[in-house]
Amino acid sequence: MLRTARRSDPAELLVPDFREEPYWWLAAPPGQGGDTADHDLPRQVEVAIIGGGITGMVAALDLARAGADVVVLDAQGIGEGAARRSAGFLGRTLKRSVEWLARKGGHPYAASVYRELDTALKGVAALVEAEAIDCHHTICGRFVAANSPAHFRALIDDLEATHREVGFPYQVVERHEQHREIASDLYCGGAVIPDLGSIHPGLYHQGLVRRARAAGVRLLPFTAVQSIEPGEGQKRIATARGSFHARQVVIATNGYTSRHLSWHVRRVIPFRGFIVVTEILPPGLIERLLPRRRTYLDTRMNIDFIRPAPDSNRILFGGLTGTASDTAAPLAAALRSRLAAILPDLKDVRLARAWTGLCAGTFDFMPHIGRQDGIHFALGYNFAGIPIGTHFGRLVARRILGREDAESVFETARFPTAPFYGGSPWFVPLAMRCFDWHDRRIAARQPATSARAQP
Ligand SMILES: Cc1cc2nc3c(=O)[nH]c(=O)nc-3n(C[C@H](O)[C@H](O)[C@H](O)COP(=O)(O)OP(=O)(O)OC[C@H]3O[C@@H](n4cnc5c(N)ncnc54)[C@H](O)[C@@H]3O)c2cc1C
């Protein structure tokens, strides 16, 4: 059994070798295992990709396989961005529901958005298989836990509307049945989405980097791009290490977009996610707490999320998204309390790692792909960049190669910004409090009778 702990004692909160670092770096440390190569700056390349995360690596791989001369530049080490900091949930996540989209743009538009999200989800599985990347990819299903009876009603209504529109499956889990999914009494039932998955994001990204390098992609870590001369012809790219020319440029910087990229930084809203991982748990405990070994999240706008580690007897927990802290360690105690509120058996568990990373929101809650002043961009994944980043990476490569199958419903004439916004997201903690208020309002509603809508 886990030891009884006094909450205020750091020794009881953290294991002795606790580190503020992503758990995934144990198996896939950035800059090791052949991940980095310090090339000299080229004088001229066909394609320069800025940002060495998932989007950048997938685009680079496809372009290099098609014979293009490609460099990937990153301000940090390759793999230090969000790509190896995520929770590894694979979903069709969008803050806008199918009904909201149908009201705004009509039913065909709403269906095309969700179909493309499904293409993105399936694209990860297809790429992992085609490239034989050993990264614990699995279709484990997701349990979405309702925070109140009204949230349950809204969840089922939303899943049913999506099922009607595009046929995605789901299964209702009533409150009295929820222990078969999670050993928690906190929730009011929920739903299983059986065809969603999970991945080890570190090994996925490491696999992409290795395949890209083997295909001839040159990596330039610790090379921040300071300016790009726009235009349709050759573009001059200035970095702290000098400058060079590229025929095509791709901006794949998502939540890390720097101020040098002035048009883009005004359109993405960086916000922090926080994750902790437990010490190694006693045998059998995960099977009792999370018997189906799915991914788990709740119905609030500002979610808590849980998953078992794919490669050890530990549980990962994330929450407090958008909190104004540049580091995760100060939030470790609060994150453990939230985890214990869901799974009381873990109230005294010690934490082995805590980390944070930057995601990118957008003013319309949609991801965006397109071209601005002759420069390709793919940005604004709103917490769901593994599938969408993979998908957009492939689309950008096809666009550069002049292929026809490169259209996206997410390419819109308008990529909105806000007056006076220059990339400083001072309002994120405030927005999170508004989301909390919105969730409390939903929870206070009296739901209609309990639903058992089955697809
Ligand atoms: C805590 C957390 C949990 C998450 N959980 C999930 C999840 O479960 N499922 C999911 O699908 N998504 C999740 N995400 C989101 C997902 O990780 C990201 O959307 C995705 O990794 C970001 O895209 P990317 O990999 O292409 O870019 P990133 O890996 O973010 O890389 C962008 C790179 O751009 C570089 N850069 C920026 N400006 C410049 C410049 N001027 N010059 C050179 N380089 C520059 C940065 O150094 C950075 O390395 C999560 C994110 C976080 C932080």
Describe the protein's architecture and organization.
With 455 residues, this protein is of the alpha/beta class. It has one domain (10-444): FAD/NAD(P)-binding domain. The chain contains eleven helices and 19 strands. The chain has helices at 10-13, 54-65, 98-105, 107-131, 149-166, 201-214, 262-265, 285-289, 332-342, 385-400, 428-444, and strands spanning 14-19, 44-50, 70-73, 89-90, 142-145, 171-173, 190-193, 197-198, 218-220, 225-228, 235-239, 242-251, 268-278, 295-298, 305-308, 315-318, 351-362, 368-372, 375-379. β10 and β11 (235-239) form a beta hairpin.
How are the elements arranged and paired?
Elements: H1 10-13, E1 14-19, E2 44-50, H2 54-65, E3 70-73, E4 89-90, H3 98-105, H4 107-131, E5 142-145, H5 149-166, E6 171-173, E7 190-193, E8 197-198, H6 201-214, E9 218-220, E10 225-228, E11 235-239, E12 242-251, H7 262-265, E13 268-278, H8 285-289, E14 295-298, E15 305-308, E16 315-318, H9 332-342, E17 351-362, E18 368-372, E19 375-379, H10 385-400, H11 428-444
Parallel strand pairs: 1-17, 2-3, 2-12, 3-9, 5-14, 12-19
Antiparallel strand pairs: 4-8, 5-7, 6-7, 10-11, 11-12, 13-16, 13-17, 14-15, 15-16, 18-19
Flavin-adenine dinucleotide (FAD) is lined by residues 50-56, 73-76, 80-83, 85-89, 224-225, 252-258, 260-261, 273, 275, 357-359, 381, 383-387, 389.
